[in-house]
């Protein structure tokens, strides 16, 4: 077993990084370098590849990673590994400054000191310039690994100083095989989860292992298919927001409790005990961080819902065009065929545009309820127009 085994559908990227870790890259002037950028769509495995590469670099004498180093990297406890990941909307400049400062240390036990920044696209321009200085003059044995959806999400000056490895969307079959092997679910559940997640590995895992997540997704599509009037659209928008909130709460609630318990334990406070006034500021900071994470989790939950709605209209479009592509929501084929028969490709494309606009508005801090209402009302108007009826 190697550190690369759980990376599915990315053979080319693995070959590049494995060769670099082993020092046997045969492409002239494209071997090991001090800074890397891993790009790819959400769920393609950017951070998984980053940590696999980090393990290979930190493991003594093998590009496939040894088990002891892999356990340390997974726990983020390796002395030569530093990680910056955020569950907030923006990575702060102070966080990057602290990481840049720690990058100046020499490796203590391995060949390299490895610095990983997940979601590097969440840095502002000012924050990115702090990182740029570190990339321009890195210590000899320090390796930076950045992750972002695309090169365009980073400053041109940073892009010019990194070697980019691009990931592709893995196939449904590849993701299903990974979920089946890693999570121990049956082949049918794994295939359905991978298909509904549209090859997003993290979401496929959640759909395969969490029945409540599957029910929430089914409810989202039922809401969309049941809209007939403007009042339906307004009520559906509120319901979708409620579903997203429940999904976000399910993801963060358990983790918040574990973090608080761990923090109290580290401060020497017994469960249920009184918190000394001198320690309350530390817990307030934790609570503020958890609130920021909840905000991002809610945004992510809304975006998941919108992606699911896009898959619905994508399927309708495939049926209207007579495409041989497999449907994402094959279980709803009958209802999708009925919807496609009473619509046109132009109207379906307009619905997909409305969803894309809603995603942009929410990303731009428009109130989610208003963005969802506008989206569903626009889709409904398109439906009424093609039927020649009045709202």
UniProtKB/TrEMBL annotation:
Enzyme Commission number, as recorded: 2.7.7.7
One Pfam family per UniProt: DNA_pol3_delta2
Every DNA polymerase III delta subunit C-terminal domain range: 305-378
SUPFAM superfamilies named among the record's database cross-references: P-loop containing nucleoside triphosphate hydrolases
Keywords, sorted A to Z: DNA replication, DNA-directed DNA polymerase, Nucleotidyltransferase, Transferase
InterPro entries: DNA_pol_III_delta_C, DNA_Rep/Repair_Clamp_Loader, P-loop_NTPase
Gene3D superfamilies assigned: P-loop containing nucleotide triphosphate hydrolases
Keyword Transferase: yes
Transferase in keyword set: yes
GO molecular function: DNA-directed DNA polymerase activity
Chain residue ranges for the region called Disordered: 252-277
NCBIfam families, A to Z: PRK07940.1
Superkingdom per UniProt: Bacteria
Name of the protein in question: DNA polymerase III subunit delta'
Catalytic activity line of the entry: DNA(n) + a 2'-deoxyribonucleoside 5'-triphosphate = DNA(n+1) + diphosphate
Signal peptide region: none
Biased amino acid composition, Basic and acidic residues: 252-263
